[in-house]
Amino acid sequence: MADVTDATTARRAPTPDDAARLADSDQSGPMLAADGRPLKQSLQRALRREKLRALMLIAPLLLFVLVTFIAPIADMLFRSVENQIVGNTLPRTVEALADWNDDAEELPPEPVFRALFFDLFLAAEAKAHTRLGSRLNYETTGISSLFRSSGRRMDDVAEPFQDVLEQADPQFGDGAFWYRLMTGEGDADTSLLNDQRERLAALTREGMGGDIGFAPSAEIAALLPRAAREYSAFALFTARIDNDVVAEEDPWESVYVALALDLQDGGAERVQSYAGPGADALQAAAANADQLPVVDFREAFIEVDDGWGDRTNWETMKTYSPPFTSGYFLNSVDLQLTADGVEAREENQRIYVMLFQRTMFMSLVITFSCILLGYPVAWLLANLPMRTANLLMILVLLPFWTSLLVRTSAWKVLLQQQGVINDTLVWLGIVSDGGRLALINNQLGTIIAMTHILLPFMILPLYSVMKTIPPTYLRAAKSLGATNWTAFWRVYFPNSVPGIGAGSILVFILSIGYYITPELVGGTTGVFISNRIAYHISSSLNWGLAAALGTILLAAVLALYWVYDRMVGIDNVKLGG
Amino acid sequence: MSALPPYATPGQRVWFYSFRVICGLIFFFLIAPIMVIIPLSFNAQDFFTFTPEMLALKPEGYSLKHYKDFFTNSDWQAALWNSLRIAPMATLLSVSFGTLAAIGLSQTHVPFRRTIMAILISPMIVPLIISAAGMYFFYSRIGLQGTYLGVVLAHAALGIPFVIITVTATLVGFDRSLTRASASLGADPVRTFFKVQMPLILPGVISGGLFAFITSFDEVVVVLFVGSAGQKTLPWQMFTGLREQISPTILAVATILVTVSILLLATVEILRRRSERLRGMSPG
Questions:
Q1: According to the model, what pLDDT value does residue A576 have?
Q2: How far apart are CA B113 and CA A538, in angstroms?
Q3: Are B134 and A406 inside 8 Å of each other by CB?
Q4: Same domain (yes/no): B117, B145
Q5: With an 8 Å Cβ cutoff, is B2 touching chain A?
Q6: Nearest to A423 among B49, B107, B207 (CB)
Q7: Which residues are within 8 A (CB) of A346 and not within 5 positions of it... i.e. 6 or more apart?
Q8: What residues does A337 pair with on adjacent strands?
Q9: Mutate to test the interface with B, among A6, A15, A63, A69 (most CBs of B within 10 A)
Q10: Residue limits of the ABC transmembrane type-1 domain (chain B) (predicted)?
């Protein structure tokens, strides 16, 4: 889009910008426009208006592309480093783990296991623990089943506490009593409730705002901090997720555990002076505090699943606890983030570097085959009379316009063991019936089919460059005594190099991102990195890894496009000849 | 190269003819796979190769049963309808937004023109699998994944670069004094756009629209991820057909699509010539 030229004089039309400059250079006082304003000002206003109008025309589309396309790409980039799931699912555990020195040869201390109990209990209620399990399973196998089995058995850990409390005062078995007890009297502790709102919103990805008909009293929150916290979480979950009335539901077992821990932790003395609702029951429970089981949560967890006694699992949890991680990118290049830093993956798990190399190698082979096949054809098209060339051009443009799947299915049919090519070869006697060639579901199949599919992208730029090489150059070279070969190699070929460059980059860029054709004709040895990305999105559900692989591929493509833009200019992309 | 000069040496003659044979083979490589599936789609058997009856040109070797299957099988019909429901909507979106923006971009003073252009062209540059991955992640976040609207928006985004490229290319040759003349004769911008500018750039708009249509109609990677079973399009059905149980109906569909592409190719070619002729006719 060069500046608009005046059709009659073939000169660039004067624009408000030019005029503004003209007015600027004028020294003899301000020139006035018809409406009495200084001309310069008036012209600048016109220029501003023109710019604004252009932007207004572009704005709807720009907005559309930003929302439908750029935002998804940004989301993918974000996902390749995002790792909030650990912190969202097990916030207290992560906090407690921060103090754990993972160099020491021991398991995390008791507070970590206590925090884990409450986190895991809530996660299991929200059914979020399996999701976290699968996430961590990408890093250390076995964690998925560890979380799944433990989530189910958190109730067992809580049971002894509940029994003792209900024996001390049967009111503890009543949901309405709990509601009265926790609501208490006096001011409500809204900050505690809001903390739990945030926590549950992060965990369940659901809105947690609005009135839920419950707020813990500040007095109770000070007296029994753990119980108030867990009951608030229970109340929010009941009101927002289950859509039930808080007062009518019996609290979770974790609330009993929280109360028991509070009582054991000095709460038994504190409740003696409490006089709010439910004080009698609390004091009865405090009187029986010595009967409450003293549970070692670490042992309880190891009893539930001995995976909790394995330091490797804890190291993985600690390593992947920050909200952002380089883990997916390291994984994409066959490395692994461990507690001891970055390590190479085990031999049998290294596939991505190999896949990237294969993608590069096969794309190079495809590009080279396209040059080999495209060059003579482009030369012929550029040197034939216009009419014949246009007719032959149809043979290039028809495949270009034909559906990708049509061409891929054609190759799938042709290349089969019982397909047309093998049948013809057998009929010609070139191969025996038993020795039919394996042309499909391997690298050869991908290379043949993709060369065919991408060949027009090589021929079209080559052709447009060769069209501009005057035939007189070759004649001049020959008249000066050059042989045909010298004339071609020293004169024609260097002139056609820009076409080769443009076509090669285009074909290479298109081929490294190909998915459909390798998927259909590539078998297992002929697939590209894009097939692995698709696999991680739809089958293994390791979206972070898919995003990281995609980001690397995107970076490669953008770098190549930058080169292409420098060489040819993206504006000069021509479609359909 | 058009003809062999009479003084050519035997060596040159051999090279001249062998070069043409090589080129002929390459053309054969380009076109044969597409042409071969046409007779194969009339196969009376469920084979993917020529049966002896077909080679003997016996009528019993040929049949229309695969076409019949395409037009009666509910899976294929549903896929066809989905394609026909999605592609025109996507085309409409990309053409209307794209044409406006192309006109804006061809103004003399556009701030950040290069950046804007790069953003608008990006859906064509980014490999489809990456667009598909990003859209899958983002559209599932905002609840568009697996919906008709989601697929239409995604396809519209993919079609936009083609509209931008073809329409701006047409606008390069557009004589801006025509709009000024129209304004000086008292037409408001809207009237000028529809009466003067639009008829002249129409060929570019239509071929941009055809590119956008083909992009959506042929697209399979993005719809695989952004769509759900309810948006199964024709290429998607072909893709599953090729991957799972390959049935000869695919060849019948392929033949129909080849016919469609020949028609489209002819249309674009006619439009291109018309546009060149119109530009040649413009004053100056």
A1: 39
A2: 38
A3: no
A4: yes
A5: yes
A6: B49
A7: none
A8: A342
A9: A69
A10: 80-268
B100 inside domain: yes
- In terms of Cβ atoms closer than 10 Å to its own Cβ (0-12, 13-18, 19+), residue A354 is exposed
Any domain includes B177: yes
Whether residue A193 has pLDDT greater than 80? yes
Scanning every residue of chain B, which has its alpha carbon at the shortest distance from the alpha carbon of A11?
B284
User: What is the rounded CA–CA span in Å between residue B124 and residue B212?
Assistant: 11
The domain in which residue B42 lies consists of 10-61
CB B137 to CB A60 under 8 A?
Answer: no
The verdict on B47 and B113 lying in the same domain is no
Q: What is the pLDDT of residue B29?
A: 93
Q: Are residues B25 and B84 in the same domain?
A: no
Report the number of distinct structural domains present in chain B.
2
Query: CB-based contact (8 Å) between B29 and chain A?
Result: yes
> Which residue does chain B place closest to A441, by CA atoms?
B243
Q: Tell me whether residues B261 and A452 touch, CB distance under 8 A.
A: no
CB of B65 within 8 A of CB of B131?
Answer: no
Q: pLDDT tier at A190 (50, 70, 90 boundaries)? A: confident
* Contact predicate B250/A526, CB 8 Å: no
Distance from the A406 Cα atom to the nearest Cα atom in chain B, whole angstroms: 5
What pLDDT is stored for residue B280 in this prediction? 62
Are the beta carbons of A564 and A506 closer than 8 angstroms?
yes
d(CA A16, CA A37): 15
Q: What are the structure tokens assigned to A84, written together?
A: 């909030």
CA dihedral A120, A122, A123, A125 (to 10 degrees): 120
Report which DSSP code applies to A108: P
Residue from the list A401, A520, A530 with its beta carbon closest to the beta carbon of B265: A401
Distance CA B61, CA B55 (A): 8
> Quick check: A412 and B105 CB within 8 A?
no
Domain ranges of chain A: 16-79, 91-153+296-347, 169-291, 352-572
Is the predicted pLDDT of residue A20 greater than 70, yes or no?
no
> Judging by beta carbons within 10 Å of its beta carbon (0-12, 13-18, 19+), is residue A188 exposed, middle or buried?
middle
B32 and B144 housed in the same domain: no
- Total beta-carbon pairs less than 8 A apart between chain A and chain B: 308
pLDDT at B284 over 50: no
* Rounded-to-integer distance, Cα B61 and Cα A540, Å: 46
Contact between chains at A557 and B30 (C-beta distance less than 8 A): no
By Cβ distance, the residue of A62, A513, A514 closest to B119 is A62
**Are B55 and B86 in a shared domain?**
no
Least confident among A4-13, A422-431, B75-84: A4-13
Residue-wise pLDDT tens digits, A474-492? 889 989 998 888 999 999 9
Measured between CB atoms, which of B101, B106, B130 is closest to A61? Answer: B101
Distances (CA, A) of B217 to A50, A154, A166, B149: 37, 52, 67, 15
CATH architecture group of domain A352-572: Orthogonal Bundle (1.10)
Q: In chain A, which residues have their Cβ closer than 8 Å to the Cβ of B117? A: 570-571
Task: Give the C-alpha separation, A499 to A466, whole Å.
Answer: 7
Q: In terms of domains, do B172 and B205 share one?
A: yes
Q: State whether A60 and B111 contact (CB < 8 Å).
A: no
User: Are B136 and B19 in the same domain?
Assistant: no
